[in-house]
Amino acid sequence: MTRWKITGLIATLVIILSIPAYLLKEIYFPRLPVSRPAATFSGSKKCMDCHKAEYDMWQNSLHDRAMEIANKTTVLGDFNDAVVEFHGITTRFYRKEDKFFVHTQGPNGEMSEFEITHTFGWYPLQQYLVPFSGGRLQCLPIAWDVKEKKWYHLYPDNSIDPQDWLYWTNAGQNWNGMCAECHSTNLKKNYDIHSDTYQTTWSEIDVSCEACHGPGSPHVEWAGLPEMARPQTANYELVVRTKGMDSREQVELCAPCHARRAILGDYTHAEPDLLDSMLPSLLIPELYFADGQIFEEVYVYGSFTQSKMYSRNVRCSDCHDVHNIKKVKEGNALCLQCHRASIYDTKTHHFHKKEGEKGDPIKSADDRVLFDVGTGAECVQCHMPERPYMVIDYRADHSFRIPRPDLSIKLGTPNACNRCHIDKTDQWSDEYITKWYGPGRKAHYGTIIDEGRKRSTQALKDLIQLASDSLYPVIVRSTALSLLAAYPGKEISRAYELALMDDEALIRRTAVDHLNVSDPKRQTELLTSMLYDPVKAVRIEAARRMTELADPQLGEAQKKIFQGSLTEYQKSMEYSADFAFGRYNLANLYVALRQPQKAVANYQAAIKIDNLFYPAKVNLAMLYNQMGKNNEAEILLREVTASHPEMYEVHYSLGLLLAEENKYAEAANYLKQAARGMPDRARIHYNLGLLLQRLKQDSDAEAALLKAQELEPDNLDYLYALADFYLKRKKLQQARNIAREMVARHPSQQIGHDILNLIEKNVGAKSN
Questions:
Q1: Would you place residue 366 in the very low, low, confident or very high pLDDT band (cuts 50, 70, 90)?
Q2: Is residue 480 part of a domain?
């Protein structure tokens, strides 16, 4: 018994003493939390020793050469007293010792000398940056064609006026706001809204390692320890995890630069969701064709996320080496990593000549060789058609779509066939597609988007279904959801309510933007709930929308979260206050907050940045009207109707304003233009009818009022206007018919009964 106790005691001691000393220390001397310094950017040189192979691949890549200090090794253009003439302006490029200069047209159109301090880009073109006051760097409009070794103008067809936003010394060609964030690492724009100046900084001038991996100081510290002393840690202390990423994670890592988007603030690499730092553009007509093909420069993300490749977990690195951006394989071998050669790399699939087979090179309308003999059989020629940007930079559509000349016939969209066979018609291409692949084509969301853009009533149900169908790309669904805003009714409100609960932040944000519930209390409840959304773009839009509510009746906790989100929104717009849209959004915010002077100042700032930015002019005119400054309002609206005659809504506003100023004849002309441009808007015809009555143009007035009543037969105002029109002209029978309709459609409204009784008495008196 004694021996057992002794043995047990020894065993217990052994167990206790076997606990590692560092754990005992933790038990009795608990570790205090360590506050580590924030991760900082260390520079690509710190990566070279351990990651030499990757570093060597990155060097001299397009990312490495994205921006450089101008010197004899980085400047590719001809600065040996080269003289060129564009749009009647003679420009000279030359050197003074080790510096580079250009003599050309500058601010206000005056000729002057400018020093070039930085290069911008490497291939297929190189631009050049000129410093100006306020910390600005501006992009010259003349660039160097690297392949052809010649100077060319970025706007060859148009001479840009020195007052235009796009003129090279103005905001449209400003490096700090337009370009910088994607050509340098750890870019901080540092725009000051009060002084209208920049103090832009970067940690490295080009797109280096940390542009993708994030600030590297914790990793560098970890890697500096002896190998056996390095603690096990998630992702090797790198801020951004790049190993084992799925398609979405990797694509969204690239998206902050490779997407057309609105920026919400400086990119920190720590944002949990893509929409915490940016808002991707939807498939709007200014950027995309109706079927989602690229139209303007959209930088890949919006097209690739529409593709089957993306939905099948294909990612950027499957085709591009992430360190030098080059393709991992050439020609069809790139696609045959996944697609079976015996099926797809055959003439029975592509029906084109292969390399070595006889044939002539195919040329474009501008005499550019699109592809030589044999390359017509390359997958990319049919599935990744290119479009030129910046004149010579041909960029491929990454939606990997099947050529659809049938959609070209229906929607006017391009197709890969006629890109090369420029002497043929869409019908010719469609006949061959049918001959080769058989009749019948799958329904495509492009037809729905196209009808939605036209506000076709037939598109309503299809848009609702498309917006809610998770099998479609998110950008397509969000676009459909945005198009629903043109359609009134409870069905639309319901679609937006359901979208508020979607897993996708872009869907939720689009729903918040357009949410319009007839019940103010319900609208408040829904928007208040979205203030708690974890994604920045969603909650700040909810806060903005809540400023439109008359009296949201929030509790103390809700007021706090609302103010926090509203402050986030305001800071995001101040970040973009060097753009017209940023100032415009701030002005709209101040209108909602009943701060008219701040609103006026920001509208004026938006117009100063871009004198053609008509939304700021229209809204400022409306504000001036509310402030009793109709003369100022009239000037602005006249400017917009002159520069944008297709803006019929503005014609309508100007017509109403002129009528308010008793300029009836001119007002009627503007209302007539609005009615012709928007024939389905009953209110315009109604207002026009009332105005024509005043001008004693009875026939036209009657036609306008009848049109309004035809479009909205239940509208009591329109019925009353017609009844009144007929009564004043003693057309009692017509007035009686309208009054009876008023009673039938609105039996509870006394006005119809009164008019009918009045008519019956008059008719009765005459008969007696």
A1: low
A2: no
Residue closest to 608 by CA, chosen among 90, 171, 58, 96:
171
For residue 293, being part of any structural domain is answered with yes
202 and 317 in a common domain:
no
Rounded CA-CA distance 239/216 in Å is: 7
Contacts of 55 (CB under 8 A, 6+ apart): 44, 47, 48, 209
CB-based contacts of 83-89 (< 8 A; 24+ apart in sequence): 84/142, 84/151, 86/142, 86/153, 86/156, 87/153, 87/159, 88/159
Same domain membership, residue 255 and residue 139: no
Number of domains in the chain: 2
pLDDT at residue 14 above 60? no
Question: What's the mean per-residue pLDDT of the chain?
Answer: 91
- Same structural domain, 144 and 263: no
What pLDDT score does 16 carry? Answer: 32
Does residue 337 share a domain with residue 268?
yes
- What is the pLDDT, as a whole number, of residue 760? 87
Biggest CA-to-CA distance, the chain? 136
pLDDT above 70 covers what percent of the chain?
92
Q: In degrees, to the nearest 5, what angle opens at C-alpha 572 toward C-alphas 570 and 573? A: 65
Q: Is 60 exceeded by the pLDDT of residue 92?
A: yes
Rg (CA), the chain: 33
Task: Give pLDDT, residue 234.
Answer: 83
pLDDT in tens, 284-317: 999 999 999 999 999 999 999 999 999 999 999 9
Q: Which helix (H) or strand (E) holds 144?
A: strand 142-145
Answer yes or no: are the C-beta atoms of 499 and 474 closer than 8 Å: no
Domain boundaries, position 315: 247-401
Task: Report if residue 432 sits inside a domain.
Answer: no
What are the distances in angstroms from CA 680 to CA 314, 677, 709, 716, 756? 46, 9, 11, 18, 29
pLDDT, mean of residues 443-471: 96
Q: Domain for residue 160, yes or no?
A: yes
Question: Contact 221/237 with Cβ under 8 angstroms?
Answer: yes
Question: Distances in Å between the alpha carbon of 696 and those of 234, 493, 683, 707?
Answer: 81, 43, 20, 18
Q: Report which residue type is found at 453.
A: R
Structural contact between residues 441 and 406, judged by C-beta atoms closer than 8 angstroms: yes
Confidence of residue 354 (pLDDT cuts 50, 70, 90): confident
Q: How far apart are CA 671 and CA 651, in angstroms?
A: 6
Greater confidence, 233 or 160? 160
> What six digits make up the tokens of 183?
């050509």
pLDDT at 488 over 90: no
Q: Are residues 193 and 261 in the same domain?
A: no
Whether 257 has a pLDDT exceeding 50, the answer reads yes
Residues 101 and 190 in one domain: yes
Whole-angstrom Cα distance, residue 185 to residue 522? 45
> Other C-beta atoms within 10 Å of 53: how many?
8
Note the pLDDT of residue 20.
Answer: 37
Cα(657)–Cα(668) distance, integer angstroms: 11
Cis omega before residue 124 (within 30°)? yes
Q: Is 640 exposed, middle or buried (0-12, 13-18, 19+ CB in 10 A)?
A: buried
Instruction: Enumerate the β-bridge partners of residue 185.
Output: 204
DSSP 312-357: TT--GGGTB-TTT--BSS-GGGTGGGTS-HHHHSSHHHH-SPPTTS
Asked whether residue 182 falls in the same domain as residue 293, the answer is no
Residue where the block lists tokens 């020609």: 331
240-244, 323-327, 460-464: range with lowest mean pLDDT: 240-244
Dihedral angle computed from the Cα positions of residues 283, 285, 291 and 295, in that order, rounded to the nearest 10 degrees: -100
Q: Which of 139, 240, 134 is nearest to 189 (CA)?
A: 134
Judge if 184 and 299 occupy the same domain: no
